[in-house]
Design brief:
By secondary structure, chain A is mainly β. Chain A contains two helices and 14 strands. A six-stranded mixed beta sheet of chain A has the order 5-4-3-2-7-6, covered by helices on one side. The longest helix of chain A has 7 residues. Chain B is built from three helices and 13 strands. Classes of the chains: A mainly beta, B mainly beta.
Amino acid sequence: MSERFAAAVGRKLVSRASAEELGALTHIVADVSRNKVASLVMGKGRKAVLVDWDQVSGFGPDAVMVADENALYAPRDDRESAAADGKLDLIGQRVLSDMGESLGEASDIVFDPASGVLETLVIGEREVPATSILGAGSYAVVVKAPAE
Amino acid sequence: MRLLVTGSAIRGLPVVTIHGGEDVAEIRDLIYNPEAGRVVGLTLNKRGFLSGRRREVLPAETIHAIGRDAVMVENEDSLTLPQDAPDEVGTSSERDVLGNEVLTEQGKSLGKVKDVVVLAGSAGEVVGYEIETESGGTGYIPLPTQLAVSGSALVVPDPTQDFVEADLVGLGAAVDEFRSRLGMK
């Protein structure tokens, strides 16, 4: 079963240790160099906190289970602050091919909830395999030019 | 069918790093070598309004692709200080073809050069010119890979006159046929 970033946002995060609801998922941070989900963001603004993917014990259809409350941490540097603010979100980002052609805007990402591995980048009507992502930054997500 | 982009459309394009996804500069101008039929480098502005010129240039060999929406480079190290760039990047800017008359081998004038047309996705292969035709309109002509350039006029093969296209799409469709008629690849 695959999951989608856009559908997963808003899902509750629950501590596996205490069964307490911790908050709602606001952003998913991807590490495109490893082609994997890097961390999740819970909450907004100054209350936003992160949890690393390896602390997520189950990404289920109704709740995202994290080890315990101690797995949550406030942003520690500029990059984590940007991530907590959603500034590193791939969704909504401009997509360029390595040939310098705009392909549109990233609308969703399909991933494997068991491993966190990214599967597909959705660009409107078009889908490209996540393995074709070459880089991502503040200006664009760059993908290998699709074959004609 | 080839995707093409004019020199004026390249000016102002962002320079984007493939592995970083960052816009590190934008294109100020093209450094063109008409004899070689290619862009040998690009000069740069800082990104954003009123931010001025950057000293660094992009030599052609550091360009991954010139596209219609961005110029792609591997990473920020592609931005090269002028003294570290190949000599032709510094010397080619003098040989400007804009305004030159385009003459066929038979001596027929097709018009004056307004702009260069670059193959999108290449590192700066110039495949044609935008010209102002004798009647004052705009046309696009394909180019062979080599041609004679004097500084005021350039001489193109006679078949060129059969390939004066009204737009870039027409030129994109004509380039390969033109070149195969001339016996080029």
